[in-house]
Design brief:
four-stranded mixed beta sheet, 15 strands, 13 helices, seven-stranded mixed beta sheet, Aspartate Aminotransferase, domain 1, alpha/beta, Aspartate Aminotransferase, domain 2, binds 4'-deoxy-4'-aminopyridoxal-5'-phosphate, globular
Length: 439
């Protein structure tokens, strides 16, 4: 009898014991190849000596000091490192304990920014349908995933939603990708005008959609147009890079590949590679100055803000990434994609293989020609997960609503330290798991 409230209450899970490189090992000694980093978290694998010793050193020096009384060296260093990695307009960092807290903090920063600028009527956020930005009530409020919202409606943040940018399913006949991207961005302008710009706080989006809607890279030009629209109407652009940031798509920030800079960006998951819970919000200097020169007080905060051990783990993670590992993500990603194409390119139930860097989605469909959702859809993701775990593979199959249809995809986000042989094993185990689940 366990007294933990597990997320999937009735599922019985193996008990993890240790980790070694890209493997997790349970208490019975069974090894699981990590194909998803949990949920795009474990970018350095499971026993990285540098991060472990950074945590030990910090625990021995000072594990916790309340931010109402002290700043700490690890927190100051982490802010310096992140700002150094950021474009010049992002000037300050705020540290919390995870992705939902990072998004929540971003929303409150954005709200307070407009209060400081004496525009208190700006209370409305625009998000995208099917999106997920976290499970706290505010973050859930800007998430457009109906299933997640339903139990907790009415939520806290007044929000409305436009379609995500998804050429593959949403494009009109004859439309090019560029035209589609422009049209998808245009929906933001229409929504701003419908609401009245004077009531809008900002637009919230994942730069590169992760789990919920099935790993969707943005169309080329989409975010440039979004940025122009936000600038034109003086709307804040808030990017959620909780999953796609910290190197996952091949650059430290996914937005670097879009040629834009957001006003606020949220990071988490890979920031301390799973060795400690941490999230970060980076903000534009205008937002910082509005608050600092205005009330001088960000009306937000948690006890474990800028936790010294978490910041020390993040510093060590960033050092490992900077020592050459981040530069390997793009090339490894190409070979990862090649293996997926070899394994699933002709698979009649795989509709699309999409992604960038070491962030990939495998879409499961009824058949390649119609690309209709796999039928019977129920529980396919659970079956794949179960069989994969039996095969010694941890991947992240999900049921998501795409273009109004219930669809399935598998999120693949392995540790950046994965090697060729491990990629090969991963592809083999995944093929067996998918085939067995579908049979
Ligand atoms: N935003 C995105 C894009 C996410 O994928 C997640 C987590 N899956 C969150 C926010 C919330 O992060 P956390 O679970 O750490 O609260």
């Amino acid at each position: 009898m366990t007294h933990i409230l597990h997320r999937h209450c009735r599922e019985s899970l193996p008990t993890v014991d240790t980790g070694e490189g890209v493997y997790l090992i349970d208490t019975k000694g069974k090894r699981y190849l990590d194909a998803c980093g949990g949920a795009a978290v474990s970018c350095l694998g499971h026993n990285h000596p540098d991060v472990i010793s950074a945590i030990q050193r910090q625990a021995e020096r000072i594990p916790f000091a309340h931010t109402g009384f002290f700043t700490s060296q690890p927190a100051e260093q982490l802010a310096d490192k992140l700002i150094e990695l950021s474009p010049a307009s992002l000037s300050h960092a705020y540290f919390v304990s995870g992705g939902s807290e990072a998004v929540e903090s971003a929303l409150k920063l954005a709200r307070q920014y407009w209060i400081e600028r004496e525009q208190p009527k700006r209370t409305h956020f625009i998000g995208r349908r099917q999106s997920y930005h976290g499970n706290t009530l505010g973050a859930l409020g800007v998430g457009g995933n109906q299933w997640r919202r339903a139990t907790f409606a009415p939520l806290l943040a007044p929000s409305s939603f436009i379609d995500p940018c998804y050429f593959y399913r949403n494009a009109m006949p004859e439309e090019t990708r560029i035209e589609y991207g422009e049209r998808a961005a245009q929906a933001l302008e229409e929504e701003i005008l419908r609401l009245g710009p004077e009531s809008v706080v900002g637009f919230v989006a994942e730069t590169f959609v992760g789990a919920t809607a099935g790993v969707l890279p943005p169309e080329n030009g989409y975010f440039r147009r979004v940025r122009e629209i936000c600038d034109h109407y003086d709307i804040l652009l808030i990017l959620d890079e909780v999953m796609c940031g910290t190197g996952r798509t091949g650059t430290f920030f996914a937005f670097e590949q879009e040629g834009i800079v957001p006003d606020i960006v949220a990071l988490a998951k890979g920031l301390a590679a799973g060795y400690q819970p941490i999230g970060a919000v980076l903000l534009n200097k205008h937002i910082y100055h509005a608050i600092n020169d205005g009330s001088g007080f960000f009306q937000h905060g948690h006890t474990f803000l800028a936790h010294p051990i978490a910041c020390a783990a993040a510093n060590a993670t960033l050092d490992v990434l900077a020592s050459g590992l981040l530069d390997e993500v793009s090339d490894k990603g190409k070979s990862f994609y090649q293996r997926l194409v070899e394994a699933f390119g002709d698979h009649q139930h795989v509709g699309d293989i999409r992604g960038r860097g070491l962030f990939w989605g495998l879409e499961l469909v009824a058949d390649k020609a119609s690309k209709m959702p796999f039928k019977p859809a129920t529980q396919l993701h659970k079956r794949i997960k179960h069989i994969a775990m039996q095969q010694g593979l941890m991947c992240y199959p999900m049921a998501g609503t795409i273009d109004g249809q219930q669809g399935h995809h598998i999120l693949l986000a392995p540790p950046f330290i994965i090697n060729e042989e491990e990629i090969q094993h991963l592809a083999e185990r995944l093929t067996r798991s998918v085939n067995e689940a579908i049979a």
